[in-house]
Amino acid sequence: MRDAPATFDKDAFDNSLHLLLARAENLNFLIIKGRLHFFDGVEMRDIAHYIYCLKYLGVEKILSVDEVGFLNPRFKCGEIALIYDHINLMGDNPLIGENDNELGIRFPDMSNAYDSGMLLKASKVFLDNKIKLNESVYLGITGPESETEAEARFYREIGSDVLGYSLIPENITAVHAKIKFTAIGLITRELIADRMKSDTRTEKVREKERINNLKKAEGILNKILIALLKSL
Amino acid sequence: MTEQRKKILETVAYLKKLLPLNYRAKLVLIVEENYKLPKNIKI
Description:
The structure holds two protein chains of two kinds. Chain A contains seven helices and seven strands. Chain A is of the alpha/beta class. The longest helix of chain A has 29 residues, at 203-231. The radius of gyration of chain A is 18 Å and the shape is globular. Chain B has one helix at 3-18, and one strand at 27-31. Chains A and B meet through strand 1, strand 2, helix 2, strand 3 and helix 7 of A and helix 1 and strand 1 of B.
């Protein structure tokens, strides 16, 4: 039975994650810059570790921002997705193994995994600022390879709007630890199955466009980021 | 106490030493390493 994280310890906060004390318009908040990724061979429980640490530091709410590809044909690169639910196809889970009841209950309720109150407040900030908001079901997969056309078609057909590699273990752990959680996707890649084969761009061009899309989405989010944080 | 919680509490004790005394923040923003934060957020 798995218990202790295999590799993670406090040094990760110096080496992989940067915990920053932030302040904006009289709001004090923490920023974690950097992530542990499952595709790097990191255990799910190692990712869970830093979320549990936040609980013991008194954190009650998390806003997590992740880069995503879009499956919903109504979306565009460079836009923002507000995630209201997820599908876990990562084949793993940070709660597998011995459950410590002090951290959370054995069978946490995932019916409000992306806190509805936070979602409502976030939506209002987007609407007030006339920013297109793509309400999304997030599909979590391991990566790191890009998706095949058949996979993209399947992911869309099972009800996903966007996909990414990072949010699932953070969200499940936050729910377990009773930390309210909301998430935003920065849309950088198109994953519409029927258009993928006709995409003749080179890998270099695709990567350049991905970075440009990331900058565009970041720019949009940054315009309202403080208002968003204050609203939560 | 499980080994998992023991390690968590070790990390929390380490982090609390780095934070200002009685520092309390209820909200956390998680972003990628390369995310360019807006300039009006003071670190």
